[in-house]
């Protein structure tokens, strides 16, 4: 019996040594864990739009999509356990002015995995099953995303005690999901029956695009003003400045992918509408791309400055992944619309950056999970 206890102690020291008990894993499971699904899924989704394709890239993207799918299921189950066993803590996080913003990660995780299922799941699941799962995940992600885009700002407006926090980059998290729905929904347009249903789907995606874009631009204005007057986020929060790139890249992706699908809807005498939407996507992509260059440079400068002063690992490091991935898909979509090799090559180069960031953050997350530190409140 003593030997058994000693062996148990050795295992305990190797696995979750920073926790008092393994069940503590669920106590502080915050919604920003879904950012790990987003960051992993975008690696797969961005790989399949690169200008150069091969069997190796497809196999790699499929493996990463499967990993993201497993993560989505595991984290969803763990999050449900968190709410059931630690309801008071969960409600406190849901009403916290900072943590509540990350509820936007949940719908984006669903949408990211759903998009990967449509493009990569057919060889494994079959076309009909892959399409069905993708459609369900898109519908669920869109419904939850629209809810967060309205609920989180409403909760902040009506809070009895107003938050003293100035605008933070994390404020974009609840308003970006409808934009992700617009870009991922574009691929589903072709599967909707032609006629009024397909038109409704396309129009709905453009409405989601507008909802997120206007709310996002207003929020980004507040964030930029805060950065100028109040300084950049410090320490663990510094990586969240990369979230601003998510709106940039995702909106360029949506504008150009929806334009491609518009040619299936507007035909014959209405064909000029599709041409106009294509022109809009290109012009929007070029203009927003210029803004994206400025924000990317600013994010790099802030990150380098913070690293020099000390940047401890936290789940906010996943902010280095998904926003960069959306810039890859945006550049590739814009490059395709313009038939521009330099733009597509820039997207491929940025994918290398994304891959390096994902490997680094994923490794640190696994290390923190084994020790248990990432399951403790920051």
UniProtKB/TrEMBL annotation:
* Compartments, record wording: Cell membrane
Key words of the record:
Cell membrane, Membrane, Transmembrane, Transmembrane helix, Transport
What Gene Ontology cellular-component terms does the record carry?
plasma membrane
Annotated CDD domains: TDT_like_2
Q: What is its main location?
A: membrane
Q: Name one GO biological process term.
A: transmembrane transport
Topology within the bilayer: Multi-pass membrane protein
Membrane-traversing stretches: 33-50, 56-81, 102-121, 127-154, 166-194, 206-228, 240-261, 273-302, 314-336, 348-366
The family this protein is said to belong to: Belongs to the tellurite-resistance/dicarboxylate transporter (TDT) family.
Q: What is this protein called?
A: TDT family transporter
Lineage runs: Bacteria, Bacillati, Actinomycetota, Actinomycetes, Mycobacteriales
């Amino acid at each position: 019996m003593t030997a058994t206890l000693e062996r148990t102690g050795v295992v305990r020291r190797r696995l979750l040594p920073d926790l008092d008990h393994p069940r503590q894993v669920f106590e502080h499971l915050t919604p920003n864990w879904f950012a790990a699904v987003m960051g992993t899924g975008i690696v797969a989704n961005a790989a399949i739009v690169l200008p150069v394709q091969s069997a190796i890239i497809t196999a790699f993207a499929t493996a990463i999509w499967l990993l993201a799918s497993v993560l989505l299921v595991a984290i969803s189950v763990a999050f449900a356990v968190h709410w059931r066993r630690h309801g008071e803590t969960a409600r406190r996080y849901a009403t916290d002015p900072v943590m509540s913003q990350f509820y936007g990660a949940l719908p984006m995780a669903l949408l990211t995995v759903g998009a990967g299922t449509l493009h990569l799941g057919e060889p494994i699941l079959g076309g009909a099953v892959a399409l069905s799962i993708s459609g369900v995940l898109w519908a669920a992600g869109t419904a939850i995303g629209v809810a967060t885009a309205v609920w989180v700002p409403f909760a902040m407006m009506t809070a009895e005690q107003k938050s003293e926090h100035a605008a933070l980059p994390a404020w974009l998290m609840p308003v970006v999901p409808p934009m992700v729905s617009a870009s991922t929904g574009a691929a589903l347009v072709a599967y909707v029956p032609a006629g009024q249903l397909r038109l409704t789907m396309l129009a709905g995606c453009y409405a989601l695009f507008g909802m997120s874009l206007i709310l996002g631009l207003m929020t980004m204005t507040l964030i930029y003003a805060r950065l100028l007057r109040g300084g950049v986020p410090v320490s663990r929060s510094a990586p969240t400045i990369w979230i601003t790139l998510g709106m940039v890249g995702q909106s360029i992706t949506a504008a150009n992918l929806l334009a491609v699908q518009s040619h299936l809807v507007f035909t014959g005498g209405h064909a000029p509408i599709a041409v106009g939407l294509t022109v809009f996507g290109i012009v929007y992509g070029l203009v927003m791309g210029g803004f994206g260059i400025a924000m990317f440079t600013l994010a790099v400068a802030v990150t380098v400055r913070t690293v020099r002063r000390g940047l401890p690992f936290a789940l906010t490091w996943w902010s280095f992944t998904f926003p960069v991935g959306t810039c890859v898909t945006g550049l590739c979509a814009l490059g395709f619309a313009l038939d521009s090799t330099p733009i597509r090559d820039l997207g491929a180069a940025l994918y290398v950056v994304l891959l390096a960031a994902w490997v680094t953050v994923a490794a640190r997350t696994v290390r923190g999970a084994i020790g248990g530190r990432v399951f403790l409140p920051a």
